[in-house]
Amino acid sequence: MGIGMKTAKQIKKPNLGFFVSLVAIIAFFLLWEWASRSGAVDSQFVPPVSKVLGDAWALLLNGTLPIHILSSLARLFAGLGLAIALGIPLGFLLGGWAPKLAGFIRPLLMNLSMLNPFALIPVFMLLLGIGEASKVGIIFWVLIWPILFATASGVMQIDPAVVSIARSMGAGGIKIFFDIIVPGTINRVFTGLKSALTLGFIVLLSAEMVGAKSGLGWLVFNSNKNYNITRLYVGILFVAVIGFLLSVGIDKLQKNIVVWEE
Questions:
Q1: Domain-embedded: residue 76
Q2: Quick one: which of 69, 64, 37, 66 has its CA closest to 50?
Q3: Residue 244: CB atoms within 10 Å
Q4: Three-state SS for 132?
Q5: Residue 193 falls within a domain, yes or no?
Q6: 10 Å Cβ neighbour count for 29?
Q7: Which DSSP category does 178 fall into?
Q8: Tell me: the pLDDT tens digits for 141-156?
Q9: Domains of the chain: total
Q10: Rounded to two decimals, what is the model's pTM?
């Protein structure tokens, strides 16, 4: 009986959602190819997907595309590292560890977070120059707010009675923090990370269109400027692929870390 139940649990059901998504992607590319080849759309502006993939493969082989991908990812993860290093500790403080400080600076932080990041790109370039510092700076600015507010929200939704019970049983501040606060907050932190990466990647591409010599944003901008439509679609395609992979990676990381949730 026990062996049968164990075997039944070990049998994994097919991931129907994955196959549906895969079929939808294949159908989209086939429709794209047909529309361009048949003349349903102007192939001058929408080249066949086979031609786009061929150009992408050539750029991968000669090392051009990996350079642009790594440049964009390096800027993104530099800004992400800074945002995590500042946003998560500040989120814990605002969430309950420093209520007086939170009440004083929360309105200011909320107003700062609503500033349009695209309008701030020239400001960062004036302050930090047109090099890497300004690009990492604007990424940091965009990423920190979702991470900070998601962390603070996670701390605030923890039941104070649980903390009180832990203290009455002799648990100290450090033990409460790592055994109650962090596990109770981590899912909200990952929610903030997902939102942050989505926004950060969009703003990064815009920042790379000014004063950059590499990156996917630069590739898209330069291809459009030189009317290289096929290469323009290569850049757009890899922006979508990398965005998807980052989202999947965050989900996998969350599942591996938050093993106690069920």
A1: yes
A2: 37
A3: 11
A4: helix
A5: yes
A6: 15
A7: I
A8: 999 999 998 888 888 8
A9: 1
A10: 0.81
